[in-house]
């Protein structure tokens, strides 16, 4: 089936689904394949549940309300790219090693003060999530804010070909998912594919002019760029202020000079706040509205999130972790005025050959800081922490048993680790 006809079917549907378990009546179901699954076997189930049509790439399942294509994933991507063209609104693409989700949500909140914004929900930032996000955009959308993730070279370029961003932000470049990139140089190459796309398409990069690496890449790659410090021709200053827990910033812009208490933990989030402020100003949002959006934002999904339990105050940052974000979180945590600080840190995954070295760096930093209690979880930390005296568990089972038998009270507790460690499962024990 050609793209024009597939788009007609999509427009008459109630949306797109890739999960037969949750498909809703009237949705267009795409039967995707993966290493460990074949969505084609669920085509009949999806149709029986009320899917308007099921898109399959296996002729054996092309029966009834089905659409046969050569490759379902590629058809999903092509459909999303076509929908993006049909809607025809500006797109802001965001990538980076750390902070892209927080920055995306801050920008979406700021832009919503002026425009009807459609943005990436949660972490839908890969070659499936991005098309689904675009395809869920209403026709009255005025701007899209799309997060783009990557774990190998070429992925950001491919996502740009779908999203076709007019503006782009790289929050930073660190050592996240280094296993898939081969080296730090590979990470740089992968993330700056966004800059390369903007250069070829005539788009505009909004960039951190205080970051030497990004500054260098801007001058060598991008034709049009807007610095955080001067997003609309007037200097913008964003500074972190002392605060007992969450980030507090002072923003100065023209006549505006105001202190803003955010809902974000950690001074490292200041760069995300500055990126969002600069993007908002460049896209025409009033500084007063930006301030209101920043103050009103509350993080979720275990990202820089504060939880107060009956016994402790938790800093929940367990959605993801890499060497850069782990060190920043640990150092920010030690700036708290609390007398009793406890760290529960899980393995940082997808680091490849550098894993042992990077975990040892974290252990060495903790040794210097001398916290009251350190609890480490995972096989990588077991090796790195040998002889350190820190409490180490191979998995959550051992940690949970410990927390039940040795409850922690009256403490501030930092909880951070890679998503695969699932440290959010221990919150109820704290």
Strand content: 15-25%
Identify the strand order in the major beta sheet. 6-7-5-8-9-10
Show unreliable segments: none
The Cα radius of gyration reads 23 Å
CATH uppermost class of the largest domain: Alpha Beta
**What is the CATH superfamily classification of the largest domain?**
Mur-like, catalytic domain
CATH architecture of the largest domain: 3-Layer(aba) Sandwich
Largest sheet: 6 strands, parallel
- How many helices does DSSP assign? 16
Gross morphology: globular
CATH topology of the largest domain: UDP-N-acetylmuramoyl-L-alanine:D-glutamate ligase
Distance N to C terminus:
55 Å
Mean pLDDT: 91
Total of domains: 3
Helix-strand category: alpha/beta
What does this structure look like?
This protein is an alpha/beta fold and 430 residues long. It has three domains: 3-70, 3-Layer(aba) Sandwich (Udp-n-acetylmuramoylalanyl-d-glutamate--2,6- Diaminopimelate Ligase, Chain: A, domain 1); 88-296, UDP-N-acetylmuramoyl-L-alanine:D-glutamate ligase, CATH 3.40.1190.10; 305-429, Alpha-Beta Complex (Protein-Tyrosine Phosphatase, Chain A), CATH 3.90.190. Helix content is 36%, strand content 21%. It has 16 helices and 19 strands. The chain has helices spanning 3-11, 43-48, 72-87, 100-111, 129-135, 155-163, 178-181, 184-191, 193-201, 212-221, 270-282, 287-296, 323-334, 355-369, 379-384, 396-405, and strands spanning 16-17, 28-30, 53-56, 66-68, 91-95, 117-119, 143-147, 167-170, 204-207, 224-227, 236-241, 246-253, 256-265, 305-308, 313-317, 341-346, 373-377, 391-393, 412-416. The strands form four sheets. Strands 6-7-5-8-9-10 form a six-stranded parallel beta sheet, sandwiched between helices. Strand 11 (236-241) and strand 12 (246-253) form a beta hairpin. Helix 3 packs across helix 5 (129-135), helix 6 (155-163) packs parallel to helix 9 (193-201) and helix 11 (270-282) runs antiparallel to helix 12 (287-296). The protein is globular. 47% of the residues are buried. The model has no long low-confidence stretch (mean pLDDT 91).
């Amino acid at each position: 089936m050609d793209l024009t006809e597939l788009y007609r079917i999509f427009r008459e549907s109630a949306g797109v689904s890739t999960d037969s378990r949750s498909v809703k009546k009237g949705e267009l179901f795409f039967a995707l394949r993966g290493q460990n699954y074949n969505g084609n076997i669920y085509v009949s189930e999806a149709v029986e549940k009320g899917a308007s049509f099921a898109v399959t790439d296996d002729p054996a399942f092309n029966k009834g309300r089905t659409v046969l294509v050569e490759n379902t994933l590629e058809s999903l991507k092509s459909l999303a790219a076509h929908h993006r063209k049909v809607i025809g609104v500006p797109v802001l693409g965001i990538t980076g090693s750390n902070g892209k989700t927080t920055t995306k949500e801050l920008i979406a909140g700021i832009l919503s003060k002026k425009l009807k914004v459609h943005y990436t929900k949660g972490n839908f930032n890969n070659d499936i999530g991005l098309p689904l996000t675009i395809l869920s955009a209403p026709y009255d959308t005025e701007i899209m804010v799309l997060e783009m993730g990557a774990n190998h070279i070429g992925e950001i370029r491919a996502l740009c070909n779908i999203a076709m961003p007019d503006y782009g932000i790289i929050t930073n470049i660190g050592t996240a998912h280094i296993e898939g990139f081969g080296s730090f140089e590979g990470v740089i190459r992968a993330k700056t594919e966004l800059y390369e796309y903007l250069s070829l398409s005539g788009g505009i990069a909004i960039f951190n002019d205080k970051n030497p690496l990004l500054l260098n890449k801007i001058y060598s790659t991008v034709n049009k760029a807007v610095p955080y410090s001067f997003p609309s021709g007037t200097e913008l200053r964003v500074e972190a202020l002392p605060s007992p827990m969450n980030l507090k910033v002072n923003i100065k812009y023209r006549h505006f000079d105001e202190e803003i208490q955010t809902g974000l933990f950690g001074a490292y989030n200041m760069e995300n706040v500055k990126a969002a402020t600069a993007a908002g100003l460049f896209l025409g949002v009033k500084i007063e509205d930006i301030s209101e959006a920043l103050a009103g934002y509350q993080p979720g999904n275990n990202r820089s999130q504060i939880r107060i339990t009956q016994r402790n105050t938790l800093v929940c940052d367990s959605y993801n972790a890499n060497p850069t974000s782990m060190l920043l979180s640990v150092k920010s945590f030690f700036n708290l005025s609390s007398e009793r600080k406890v760290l529960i840190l899980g393995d940082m995954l997808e680091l490849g050959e550098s894993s042992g070295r990077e975990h040892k760096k974290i252990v060495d930093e903790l040794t210097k800081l001398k916290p009251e209690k350190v609890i480490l979880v995972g096989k990588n930390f077991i090796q790195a922490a040998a002889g350190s005296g820190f409490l180490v568990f191979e998995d959550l089972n051992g940690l949970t048993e410990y927390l039940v038998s040795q409850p922690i009270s009256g403490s501030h507790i930092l909880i951070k680790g890679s998503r695969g460690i699932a440290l959010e499962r221990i919150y109820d024990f704290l």
